[in-house]
Amino acid sequence: MANITDLIRQQILRTSYVEYQQISWINFGTIDARRLFPCWDEPRFKAQYDLYLIIPKNTMAISNMDSDRRRSYSHYLDEIHFHQTPPISTFQLTIIMATKFEIILNEKNNTKIPIRLITMDSSKDSNQWHFALESTEYLLEYFQYYYGHPYPLKKLDLVTIESNHVQLQTSMEKLGLIYFTRQDLSIKNMSMVDEHDLQTVVSLLAHSLSYQWLGNMVTFDDWSEFWLFESLNQFMEKQAMDDVFPQWRSWQQYTADEMNLALRFDSSSLDLVKSIRNSIHHPNDVISLVYPHGVNIYRKSTFLFRMLKQNLDGEIFRLALQKFIHKYWTKTGTLEDFQECFITVIDEIDGQDGQKYYQFRQFQKQMVRIFSNWTEMAGFPVLHVDERQDGNRRILRIHQERFVELRNSTKLKEKSPLWPIPISIVKSFNPFTPSNQMIINDEKFELRLSAIWPGEWIKLNPTFSNFYRVHYSDEMLNRFTVPIEEKLLSSLDRLNLVDDVSAMIRAGYTSTITVLKLLQSFENEDNPNIWSVIITMLNDLHLIISNIESDHDRQSIQSNFENYSKRLLKRMYERIKWSYNSLTNYRPYRMKMDEFAQNQLRTRILCAMGQFGDEHFQHEAQIRY
User: Which part of the chain is the Aminopeptidase N-like N-terminal domain (predicted)?
Assistant: First the structure.
């Protein structure tokens, strides 16, 4: 029997939450369970656990499972027994003990699963948890549908802990019991809340709930596969947010905020960038993958899952995930198992389609197979694209190489690796439906397109689906002016163009003048996520200008650039309102998409106008504040 005093410094954590009140909780890490009881402390060794606790009579305890009895053990102690767990890995076991819990119950919900929010907050303000509980209900219902498998337990506990402990900086997704800090889930005043706070709550909940299926019930075989489940849940977090709360445009916002960061980090240095898949020879090595590389490993692999889904088919992706979950329920799975389930689903659908979609199904199988190649290769490619017209045919000349923003590295002289690259296009007369899907493995390649007349535009990487950059010739870039102005390109395609040309400036592939001319096409843009990328580019250029050595040149160029930026922003600045749309009556599904977009757009435009020193903005701000 383990004693809490002996183990307090190892894996049993303790904190005070109000005067004379304490909470202790067990959070097993990669090698902590073996310190508390004899076990095979590896993810692949799953077992069922009967848990007995002997605790003081004035103490309450919760664990992964419900307790089925509590009885007196001695004059001062009680014994608690919890129901037997399903087969789980040791790191998923958890226990919380406290002298007092406040329990907010959401039992009557569509999922018919009691959802308890357990807090140590003594403020008695239960309204602050309503948004989290309501969102949990929607998300739990969504994941049961998407994964095709019911939630595995008869209860779900969300526990908020008052703690600044270093080991509780974010949520911890144990089976049936999820830890949060109080600040993670508390929304105290819906009339004053920013939608970013709501998104943060839902993001944490979605990730943690998805983990109940992918991570807890289906588990990584060893710590080398941890990235697979962590990033898959990160992907499903955004997928759920996009489907359950469409007004937030979560994928679009996440792409604007995180895709650029992932691509930047992965192209920052040939020496620093690592591949996603790395061997773990000791559980402590997991920590080495967290900073600084781990954050980008999960970020990048999240976008690789998006690349896989977009190039396959949304329904195939869902069916393959369902097969993976059903086949490996209460077991462990690997990347190879994951890929095998996708191939099986494609074969099953191919058998129903006959020869009609044979070529497309072959492309889909290739896409699944090359997924592992992308996880084993560090960095990503850039496609240099030029074109020539041959009658009513357009011939695209494509050249791939590894993309590095700092191109003075001596390693650039080495031969660039070759990626298997998924290619598809959108064009003038079919701007929203990708075509010509294929995978190229060569360094140089020609793509011949029929029925493309002079003056028509062609764009690669539709909806920013794939994890690579595209460098267009100036002639191709200039053709995007009209489709940008008239919004003939999708929002993600417009965002992709801005992000790519910004990277091409930093890498020295494209002139700044060419890009600034293209940006003028965005004067009427009303998408806040696209403006976020544009403003980031303007800030980058502003920083470059501020480092010019000559004072005279720097001041002159800086003044001209700030005037250009203010002219670019002016039309949207004149259209937005300064007042903020209240979220007082917010409920999931009920707030209009335009209201969220307007709030985001207002924030971005006003901040940028202030940064570039617009006089009208400064005058208006002085009057208001």
Answer: 21-91
